[in-house]
Write a structure and sequence with these properties.
Alkaline Phosphatase, subunit A; 10-stranded mixed sheet; about 25% helix; globular; disordered N terminus; disordered C terminus; Alkaline_phosphatase_core_sf
């Protein structure tokens, strides 16, 4: 150990880096935007993010949120646990929001606390969770931060009229100030505070502006329209149009359940939606400026080379794709595939990882590892390989959702009955379990809905998710499977494997979430879908319990989510006996 440390110090001296800097634990900055898209190319319109982060770091193009809605996704980020384990599955009580975060015990057990306990100063500026309000901000106060400035409901999404609590103090309203700029200003103050004390402690700083989230007024009725923008940005991107990809307002309906019933958008709505996205891009300019200013301050303090900078968002966004009004909460790539850029010591520069799947469940383990902290046994994710200039890693990420899908914008949501009573335009039965697979040999998305409908997309031939391979004559995917093949096998054989993998992922904990195949094949001879497709496993997978629901609920109720246990393959006598038994579906009885 002494020889290794000496060599490190000598190498640092030869590179012109001070011994104290070489030995210091790194600072970590996390910028967390709200509802930022990947598939409408929002990062292409952020020049400072491109200059300081993407060109100086690694962009993960296959990074996913596991639940496409704000609060559950943020709790996923802060805990490293899937939503079915945190049981925070919505943005408001009883199934979500800050009160649910507290009642589930996570105010005493989350990333900022762990970082603080390991010797870091911790700071937060911006939105934390939904339903973190002027009434409950101190009941109890958020634990784990050296300094904080939280934007509070009910005015969280009002860009020019918002309320914050600074360092736990009484809420203060700011009328006429621009929320993302205010969040940035407080982040600069915390950054300067952390830099001033960096010789004693490294710092972990989170800046979480509300941009580009819709501007939302909650009371007396909910109104959700495009974000407001700063005066200096209001004339930008006037010629921008949402990319006219094959899934943009298609002639033929796509998807399943309520999505399949959406009418085609007319020209008036399309024009409105283009401007809606322009406003989102304009709102992101203040975030872009914040990134540039934070980089400048780190550089001036001599700490840029000792700081990891992470840029991401809580969930993605769709506008006009699949005929959808502005919003999220769906199982499409637009909603679950999100920006992720990391720069810092040893991170490959100007590098794109486009064949590796990572998820928000991996963020907390990654931050802990970068800080030199050990992984926690209750993590459902693993640290991302941020220092490797190779496209290798896990092939899977699980996704899940419960409850409603709520469209935004004046054509998607009128707030007719008010937010609490249930909007007229909210789409029920938007509960599903999904699976995204990505590797050199295949790229797939599979989902099972509470309505018994299923989706399967071959993302290599259909990246826009227009051709559901399980749809029968473009109708809902119920009943018998169409006669088709995938990966050299018939579809039903492939689905048997995918269903088994979802069965593991939908209730997994800890290592079962990162190594699901090993749960089914404990001998360790199956590591991927490709391995599992070996013909010798056909009967075994055919007899696995199938993913199903008995009802569509607004929250996580395991008792309505079908089988939770799966068969384990041993290759022994029990498996040979199973191969001789008739095929039995545990939900519907004998089916051969």
């Amino acid at each position: 150990m002494r020889i290794s440390h000496t060599l490190t110090v000598l190498a640092s001296l030869s590179a012109g880096v001070s011994v104290s800097a070489a030995a210091a634990r790194p600072n970590i900055v996390l910028v967390l935007t709200d509802d930022q898209d990947t598939h409408m190319n929002s990062l292409d319109h952020m020049p400072l993010v491109q200059k300081h982060l993407m060109r100086q770091g690694t962009t993960f193009t296959k990074h996913y949120c596991t639940v496409a809605i704000c609060c559950p996704s943020r709790v996923n980020l802060w805990t490293g646990q899937m939503a079915h384990n945190t049981n925070v599955t919505d943005v408001i009580p009883p199934f979500g929001g800050y009160p649910k975060f507290v009642s589930e015990g996570y105010n005493d057990n989350h990333l900022a606390l762990w970082m603080q306990e390991s010797g870091y100063n911790t700071y937060y500026s911006g939105k934390l969770f939904n339903h973190h309000t002027v009434d409950n901000y101190a009941d109890p106060p958020v634990r784990g931060f050296t300094g904080s400035n939280f934007v509070l409901d009910p005015s969280t999404y009002q860009y020019w009229n918002f309320t914050t609590s600074h360092n736990g103090g009484a809420p203060q309203n700011f009328l006429g100030k621009y929320s993302p700029d205010f969040t940035a200003a407080r982040a600069y103050e915390f950054l300067d505070e952390g830099l001033a004390a960096v010789d004693e402690k490294p710092f972990f700083l989170v800046a979480a502006p509300i941009a580009p989230h819709a501007q939302v007024v909650l009371y007396p009725t909910m109104e959700a329209g495009p974000p407001a923008v700063a005066e200096r940005h209001r004339d930008l991107f006037n010629d921008y149009q949402i990319p006219r990809t094959p899934n943009f307002n298609p002639e033929e309906a796509s998807g399943v359940s309520w999505i399949l019933r959406q009418p085609r958008l007319n020209d008036t709505v399309i024009e409105y939606n283009d401007e809606y996205q322009r406003q989102r891009l304009r709102s992101l300019q203040s975030v872009d400026e914040m990134v540039g200013e934070m980089i400048s301050r780190l550089d001036a303090a001599g700490q840029l080379g000792n700081t990891y900078f992470i840029y991401t968002t809580d969930n993605g966004y769709h506008i006009s794709q699949h005929r959808l009004h502005p919003g999220k909460e769906c199982s499409f790539e637009t909603d679950i595939n999100v920006p992720m850029v990391i720069r810092g010591p040893g991170v490959p520069q100007d590098f794109v990882k486009d064949a590796v799947v990572s998820s928000h469940t991996d963020v907390a383990p990654t931050v802990m590892k970068l800080a030199g902290n050990p992984p926690r046994p209750d993590f459902d994710g693993r640290a991302m390989a941020v220092h490797d200039a190779v496209n290798s890693g896990p092939e899977h990420v699980g996704t899940e959702f419960w409850g409603y899908a709520i469209p935004e914008g004046k054509y998607g949501y009128s707030g007719k009955y008010g937010f609490i009573d249930g909007p007229a335009e909210a789409h029920p039965n938007n509960t599903y379990k999904g699976l995204r697979l990505e590797c050199a040999d295949y790229s797939l998305y599979y989902a099972v809905w509470c309505t018994h409908e299923r989706q399967l997309y071959n993302m290599r031939t259909d990246p826009w998710q227009m051709d559901n391979l399980l749809a029968n004559n473009k109708e809902k995917s119920k009943g018998s499977l169409p006669a088709a093949t995938l990966l050299g096998r018939d579809l039903e054989t492939v689905i048997d494997r995918l269903d088994a993998l979802v069965l593991v992922m939908k209730s997994c904990k800890g290592a079962a979430c990162t190594e699901p195949w090993r749960r089914i094949h404990p001998k360790g001879d199956v590591h991927s879908l490709k391995d599992a497709l070996a013909p010798r496993f056909d009967v075994f997978y055919k007899k696995q319990p199938k993913v199903s629901f008995t009802s569509c609920e607004l929250g996580y109720f395991p008792e309505v989510e079908g089988p939770m246990d799966y068969h384990v393959f041993s290759g022994g006598a029990l498996d040979r006996i199973r191969e001789q038994l008739p095929l039995v579906d545990p939900n519907w009885g004998l089916w051969t």
